[in-house]
Design the sequence.
């Protein structure tokens, strides 16, 4: 009961207070590239890329009214040009649900990018991407309890009593994002990629309280290296840093890939979100399909709450990259970063 009241209090603070809304994020950021940087749109060695990813926050430690679930679906493809450049087009859909659906957010985003190739073998590229999208936030006031509904016993709530709250039920806005990335295949055994992106460029109004703040800009920086140590084994260290309003997030990680055959690759690794969570990851590629599973092992102050030490977040991802169709006079190579 006490924990549920705490969650309701936090939710009301975010709805009615002046706190800035924060963007959706995934632990498997490498399997949600369009949410990481618009410049990664269409940057694949294939004809198209389709993916879904699902996150359940506080999995195993809460009930249905206090969970946070986020499904995302994305699609993108490259249009290759004869000079070695490419144009990427795509988009994604997100339905973020907090506290069992009391607070929900829907995003529909379209994306485009231009990949300029450099070098004699076109092994290096500078990518510039843009996104434009629609956002809607909704709150289910009928499913919420407020202090004015507290019954005479001081522990239960009477839904027949008025809430006396005047915040709106939904907000709608449009937004723009952009990003820049540099990728290089230095040799057959060494590849690296760095990028920076900015989301919420126009800081859209995104709160239910007329006195609330706009959705603040999110700045993201990424860097990854792909080193092939043997014909069968590769190491992929990576780092991602995000900053939005007063919130900061740093992820450090190392993954390994074993090529069992041309069609089957096994991935395993771990990431550390500083002062928040340790995230083991297991994935597999098979004939263009990539399946990923990760779990956030909580390392934050939430551990101080009694019986919540094993609370974490589980994520599933499934991605498919269609095989490219070679066109006369067009170089099909468009190296995709592996984080």
Sequence:
């Amino acid at each position: 009961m006490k924990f549920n009241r705490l969650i309701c209090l936090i939710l009301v603070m975010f709805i009615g207070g002046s706190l800035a809304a924060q963007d959706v994020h995934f632990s498997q950021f490498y399997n949600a590239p369009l949410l990481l940087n618009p410049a990664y749109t269409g940057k694949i060695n294939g004809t198209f890329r389709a993916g879904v990813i699902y996150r359940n926050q506080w999995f195993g430690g809460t009930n249905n009214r206090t969970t946070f679930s986020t499904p995302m679906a994305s699609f993108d493809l490259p249009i290759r040009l004869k000079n070695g450049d490419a144009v990427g087009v795509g988009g994604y859909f997100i339905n973020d649900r907090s506290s069992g659906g009391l607070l929900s957010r829907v995003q529909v985003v379209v994306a485009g990018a231009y990949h300029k190739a450099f070098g004699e073998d076109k092994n290096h590229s500078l990518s510039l991407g843009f996104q434009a999208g629609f956002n809607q936030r909704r709150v289910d006031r009928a499913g919420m309890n407020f202090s004015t509904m507290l019954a005479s016993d001081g522990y239960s709530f009477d839904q027949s009593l008025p809430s006396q709250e005047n915040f709106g039920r939904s907000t709608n806005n449009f937004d723009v994002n952009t990003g820049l990335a540099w990728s290089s295949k230095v040799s057959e055994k060494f590849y690296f990629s760095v990028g920076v992106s900015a989301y919420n460029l126009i800081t859209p109004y995104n709160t239910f309280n007329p006195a609330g703040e706009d959705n603040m800009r999110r700045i993201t920086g990424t860097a990854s290296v792909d080193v092939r140590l043997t014909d069968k084994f590769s190491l992929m260290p990576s780092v991602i840093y995000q900053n939005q309003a007063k919130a900061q997030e740093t992820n450090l990680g190392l993954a390994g890939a074993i090529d069992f055959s041309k069609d089957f690759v096994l991935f395993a690794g771990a990431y550390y979100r500083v002062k928040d969570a340790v995230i083991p990851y297991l994935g597999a590629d098979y004939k263009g399909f990539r399946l990923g599973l990760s779990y956030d092992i909580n390392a934050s102050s939430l551990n101080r709450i009694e019986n919540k030490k094993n609370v974490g977040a589980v994520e599933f991802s499934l991605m498919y990259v269609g095989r490219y169709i070679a066109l006369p006079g067009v170089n099909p190579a468009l190296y995709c970063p592996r984080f």
